[in-house]
TrEMBL record:
It is an enzyme of class 6 (ligase). Allows the formation of correctly charged Asn-tRNA(Asn) or Gln-tRNA(Gln) through the transamidation of misacylated Asp-tRNA(Asn) or Glu-tRNA(Gln) in organisms which lack either or both of asparaginyl-tRNA or glutaminyl-tRNA synthetases. The reaction takes place in the presence of glutamine and ATP through an activated phospho-Asp-tRNA(Asn) or phospho-Glu-tRNA(Gln). Heterotrimer of A, B and C subunits. It comes from the Bacteria. This is Aspartyl/glutamyl-tRNA(Asn/Gln) amidotransferase subunit B. GO terms for biological process: glutaminyl-tRNAGln biosynthesis via transamidation; translation. Belongs to the GatB/GatE family. GatB subfamily. Keywords: ATP-binding, Ligase, Nucleotide-binding, Protein biosynthesis, Transferase. The gene is gatB. It catalyses: L-glutamyl-tRNA(Gln) + L-glutamine + ATP + H2O = L-glutaminyl-tRNA(Gln) + L-glutamate + ADP + phosphate + H(+); L-aspartyl-tRNA(Asn) + L-glutamine + ATP + H2O = L-asparaginyl-tRNA(Asn) + L-glutamate + ADP + phosphate + 2 H(+). PANTHER family: GLUTAMYL-TRNA GLN AMIDOTRANSFERASE SUBUNIT B MITOCHONDRIAL AND PROKARYOTIC PET112-RELATED, GLUTAMYL-TRNA(GLN) AMIDOTRANSFERASE SUBUNIT B, MITOCHONDRIAL. Its EC number is 6.3.5.-. One of its GO terms (molecular function) is asparaginyl-tRNA synthase (glutamine-hydrolyzing) activity. Residues 330-477 form the Asn/Gln amidotransferase domain.
Amino acid sequence: MSKEYEVVIGLEVHVELNTKTKIFCGCSTAFGGAPNTHVCPVCSGMPGSLPVLNKEVVNKAIAVGLATNCDITRNSKFDRKNYFYPDNPQNYQISQLYYPICRNGRVEIELPDGTVKDVRIHEIHMEEDAGKLVHDSFTDETYVDFNRSGVPLIEIVSEPDMRSADEVIAYLEKLRETIQYLGASDCKLNEGSMRADVNLSIREKGSEEFGTRTESKNLNSFRAIRNCIENEIARQIDLIESGDNVVQETRRWDDNKGYSYPMRSKEDAQDYRYFPDPDLVPIVVSDEWIDEIKKAEPEFRAAKKERYKEEYNIPDYDIEQITAEKRMADIFEEAIALGADPKKVSNWLMGETMRLMKEHSIDASDLSFSPANLVKVIKLNESKEINNAVAKEVFEKVFSENIDPEVYVKENDLSTKADSGELLAVVKKAIEANPKAVEDYKAGKKKAAGAMVGFVMKEMKGKCDPATANSMITEELDKMCN
């Protein structure tokens, strides 16, 4: 009889905080600058330079801790983590080992089958990010970009409470949602502002002892995380069943090739020779400081969903979709505040907005059009100033360039023709040009009138309301039947 196994998973999640400047200097944290342009003597590790703590980093770290039910450490300190690597300019990283800013938290997750469970958080600590190595496969050379060096990070360390890839993804989604709603980070995995290390081991079902764990580093997509976990579970079970030992090590997952390979044997804290950073004073967190951060907490998704059910007459599915991203929920609420109908705003967000986001590979956090311009499109369409097709065309310009829809419609002569005489003439022309459809209509096939709407729209170059055209065609055909 084959043995049954249980997987044990804990995560170390690194999140880049979206402060304007780095954790210990005034350099920009903006993503995508030319290499080595967001640097100074502090973040490039020049001798004699001294770090100065950015208070906003502490504010955001505490906010994340409070939102994940952590205890806030009232006397917190920074430590030096010593290691030698090309993208680490000081040959040490300023981090927190002994007195992390947050401890003993928990996050409630909901699984696809509706099961709810808590994942405990061991700690959240602040640290600086390293630089980035850029490998040129053509020249076989490696370049170092220090723009990211000194960007503020929090590392969220869970307890080994997860038992499947589904639980891991649910936990990461809840963390991302919470942090995005706080406005502490955009949590873009593709840009590295959220990345996860997976600590995974296998044990026989029912056993209380942990197996030997491996760590898979810097996974930056949910797909890669799931693939890595499923592959590592199978790899460790194969080793155990073949009588081999699982080696405690750090592994690198290659999602394109679908396998992992060892990087180095697993380090312990002693290997990094941690000691208190002599250049940074302790952080003393007062009750008043914590109360101030609590007062600034936003309405989180769960509360927002409940309020939407009470205030807006929209389906639960709409609520789920809109509240999944804070930026989408913000646009929705601002548009309603400007007088738009909630369901119509919801339709535009879940329809055209999400279609264009997918088409242009844009995250909700990058949406730049104003809710006011969305409302103008909706109202132009409601008043039949523009028809549905034109409304979608105009919204594409709003989506990409945030143009004023009213000005754009006027300048491009997109307004629906209001001259009923002109429209009537085209309707009569459509009837004359479609004798077969006329005969079908007279024979009781009322849908035949729709065949002439396309003719009218083409003649009017799309500048009429299809419903109005259909109504006029039906009226004229009814006259012919009487």
